[in-house]
Design a protein that fits this description.
One of its GO terms (biological process) is lignin catabolic process. Its EC number is 1.10.3.2. The protein has about 550 residues and is mainly beta. It is built from four helices and 33 strands. The chain has helices at about 150-160, 305-315, 375-380, 510-515, and strands at about 5-15, 20-25, 35-40, 45-50, 60, 85-95, 100-105, 115-120, 135, 140-145, 170, 190, 195-205, 210-215, 220-225, 230-235, 235-240, 245-250, 260-270, 280-285, 335-345, 360-365, 370, 415, 420-425, 430-435, 445-450, 455-460, 480, 480-485, 490-495, 500-505, 520-525. The relative contact order is 0.14. Bound molecules: CU-O-CU linkage. CU-O-CU linkage (C2O) binds near residues 59, 61, 504 and 508.
Length: about 550
């Protein structure tokens, strides 16, 4: 196994999009940030120097960080943020994972600009469990762009208690492309040859939007999700939530009739408020072509087509082969039911709030809106000093009755606190996430740090603890780190709590994360030396 060393200099860089220039934080002046490529089993040492006047920390989204929570990165959870002028080295080994993941900043909404791909190739000589693609294409990261100053966007959202101003564009690797004014020259192009099979790695790094993706006249065969192989399936359009990654095989046309085709992304949302309903395009180029602005767009589902999303998500099955078995917990030690959704807080008397009926939006899990601590939870746990930092009484069943089939939910009441759920080492956990959004509101892409989970079931309406478990897939359910709780529905997940530490779980819509749709699991050490957290690195930042 190899060791890869990278230096991340976080600095301000001027970037122009849509005819407006602004200064954004970047890694080494690059936007999107550098692509990291390793093989399974390799070690990564990333030295971060923060040269900006703002806190930062980095998360390696989907890396399990076994025994090494110190390298996970969410600010105030596994570390204090790296302050301006300070440095921190993330040092970790990629074990038992291969595929596409990504890295992003994990302080406030800084990930809007600070993100990049993390490609994990199979071990040398191991190959893929499908015919070897002709070539790997550069990864594509979908994103969002605001022309206004991003700090202003964040404070607008957080201070008014309403939703954020919608973004001005979606982007392919930071480029909005030909569907927006003043953006034709900022079009992402992917060069291909006819009659070949390519590997394409897709990452949704958008802040607040699930996206449809398709390519005119081409199909896509999904082979991997969140760095786990799946049984291949072929679609025209795929759906990808913020945080999720997907590898697809793209067969190019043997005799293309056009020298170029359009790739497009557009949002999936059921939200009734305002959202960015634009479509961004990029170009799949068979031969250099000058006319990229009038190519037909692929037909994507309508923005609120929940049926298309459901059909798409039903395709996912773990490969579950002898070489890549699906270790699905068959028995359950710990049943947990979480409601996830939006609620409201009263508006402080010295403010005007833009949430429903003049309130402030709050978001919660089991009615607990996560309150950001002032020190890192993992340090408190390691030192067994919980007082004044966290409470180990996060409710594992909904404290208020809910029933939203037909009527709006009555559990939008919100309490605030830094609460965690303690778990015994290696407990087998079943977690049901019940969306309580009023019919027609959004789904929530929930991301679990430090783990993958198996998605054993999903459905609409209220989860039925008697009849729904009988329909679970305990044979080859998909294994992921991020799953969307369907609009007006639920998902059931299972995992073994075999990684000690403090692990954040949250909605990967940054606006919901800021509103408190987040919690942490506190997984205790196991008895053996390789089941215990390792001590913190000496340069761990101080709060
Ligand atoms: Cu991709 Cu906690 O984040």
């Amino acid at each position: 196994a190899a060791t890869h060393r990278y230096t991340f200099n976080v600095q301000m860089t001027k970037v122009t999009r849509l005819c407006k220039t602004k200064s954004i934080p970047t890694v080494n002046g690059q936007f999107p940030g550098p692509k990291l490529v390793v093989r399974e089993g390799d070690r990564l040492i990333v030295k971060v120097h923060n040269h900006i006047n703002y806190n930062v920390s980095f998360h390696w989204h989907g890396i399990r960080q076994v025994q090494k929570g110190w390298a996970d990165g969410p600010s105030y959870i596994t570390q204090c943020p790296i302050q301006g002028g300070q440095s921190y080295t993330y040092d970790f080994t990629v074990t038992g994972q291969r595929g596409t993941l990504w890295w992003h900043a994990h302080f406030s909404w800084l990930r809007v600009h600070l993100y990049g791909p993390l490609v994990i190739l199979p071990k040398r000589g191991e190959g893929y469990p499908f015919p070897r693609p002709y070539k790997e294409l550069p990864p594509i990261m979908f994103g969002e762009w605001w022309t206004s100053d991003t700090e202003a966007v964040i404070s607008q959202a957080l201070q008014t208690g309403g939703g954020p101003n919608v973004s001005n564009a979606y982007t392919f690797n930071g480029l909005p492309g030909p569907t927006y004014n003043c953006s034709l020259k900022d079009t992402y192009k992917l060069k291909v040859e006819p009659g070949r099979t390519y590997m394409l790695r897709l990452i949704n790094s958008a802040l607040n939007d699930e996206l449809f993706f398709g390519i005119t006249n081409h199909s896509l065969t999904v082979v991997e999700a969140d760095a786990n192989y799946v049984k291949p399936f072929t679609v025209k359009t795929l759906v990808i939530s913020p945080g999720q990654t997907m590898n697809v095989l793209l067969n190019t046309a043997p005799n293309p009739v056009s020298s170029a085709y359009t790739m497009a992304i557009a949002p999936y949302t059921n939200t009734q408020g305002t959202f960015d309903n634009t479509t961004a395009a990029a170009v799949l180029e068979y031969a250099p072509s000058t006319t990229t602005n009038n190519l037909p767009l692929p037909s994507l589902p309508r923005y609120n087509d929940t049926g298309a999303v459901t059909n798409f998500s039903r395709n996912f099955r773990s490969l579950a082969s002898p070489q890549y078995p699906a270790r699905v917990p068959q028995a359950v030690d710990r049943h947990v039911l979480f409601t996830v959704g939006l609620g409201t807080d009263p508006c402080p008397s010295n403010q005007t709030c833009q949430g429903p009926n003049g309130t402030k939006f709050a978001a919660s899990i089991n009615n607990n809106s996560f309150f950001r601590p002032s020190t890192a939870l993992l340090e408190a746990h390691y030192a067994r000093r919980y007082a004044g930092v966290l409470l180990a009484n996060f409710p594992t069943t909904p404290p208020h009755p809910f029933n939203y089939t037909g009527t709006p939910p009555n559990n939008t009441f919100v309490m605030h606190g830094t609460r965690v759920v303690p778990l015994k080492f290696n407990a087998s956990v079943e977690l049901v996430l019940q969306g309580t959004s009023i019919q027609g509101a959004e789904s929530h892409p929930l991301h679990l740090h430090g783990y993958n989970f198996f998605v054993v079931g999903q459905g609409f309406g209220n989860f039925d603890p008697v009849n729904d478990p009988a329909k679970y897939n305990l044979v080859d359910p998909v294994e992921r780190n991020t799953i969307s709780v369907p609009t007006a529905g639920w998902v059931a997940l299972r995992f073994f709590a075999d990684n000690p530490g403090v692990w954040l779980m949250h909605c990967h819509f940054d606006v919901h994360l800021s509103w408190g749709l987040s919690m942490a699991w506190l997984v205790n050490d196991g008895p053996l030396p390789n089941q215990k957290m390792l001590p913190p690195p000496s340069d761990l930042p101080k709060c």
